Amino acid sequence: LLSHFSSVGFWGLVNNAGISTFGETGWLPMETYEKFADVNLLGSIRTTLEFLPLLRKYKGRIVFMSSIIAYFTLGNGIYSMTKAAIEKFCDALRLEMKKFGVQVCIIQPGNYARSTKIQPPVSAEEIWSELSEEEKAVYNKEYIQERANFFNSILSEGSTNGNEVVDAMVDALISPAPKARYMVAKLKEKVLVFVCALFPTVVMDSVLSYALSK
C-alpha cells in the first residue's frame, strides 16, 4: 500500500473511525474501556504512524474526528475520554509536524447522532441486565431508566445535517490555510464548551449537574 502511494503521491489522511456507548463509570467492564481506547484512540494513532513518512514527504494534511464531548460529558464519559485523548495527541503532532510542512486539523462536531447513527437509543433493561451485582446494589432500575431517557432525548435532538461536518473535513483537506480546529456545533453546544474552557470547574459541574437533574 505504501509503495503504491510513493509513486502517485499522498496528500491527506482522515482519521474518522469511532464508536460510542452510554453508561456511568462503574457500569462498564474493563474490556469495554480497552475496546474504546483501541478503536477511538489507538486506531487513529496506528494509522497516523503508518502514513507519517508519506505525509512528511508530500507535505500533506492529517484530519482527526474529535467531538465537543472532549470538553464535557453527559453520560458517555468513555467516549469523552477517548476524544480528549486524541485532542492531546493532535496538539503534540500539530506542533511537531510544522517543520515538515504537514498540517494537522481537528474536527469537533456537536450532536450529529441522527446523522451518523454512531449511538443507537439505549435500553435501560439491557443496561440493568449487564450490571455487576455490586452495581445493582448501588443503583436501581428507576435511576437507570431516568438516565436512559435523558440520554435518548439528547440523541433525538441530534442534527441531521451531516454534510456540515463533511464540509469541514473537506476544507481541512483542501484549504490553503486550514484551521487547527473546526467546531461544527449549535450555539448552545458552543456555549457549553465556552463555559467549560473559561470558567472554573465548579461552574461547569454545576451546569451539568443541573442538566442531569432535569
TrEMBL record:
Coiled-coil ranges per UniProt: none
Keyword line: Membrane, Transmembrane, Transmembrane helix
Recorded superkingdom: Eukaryota
UniProt family annotation: Belongs to the short-chain dehydrogenases/reductases (SDR) family.
Residues annotated as transmembrane: 62-79, 191-212
InterPro entries to which the protein is assigned, alphabetical: NAD(P)-bd_dom_sf (IPR036291), SDR_fam (IPR002347)
Organism per entry: Melanocharis versteri (Fan-tailed berrypecker)
Name assigned to this protein: BDH protein
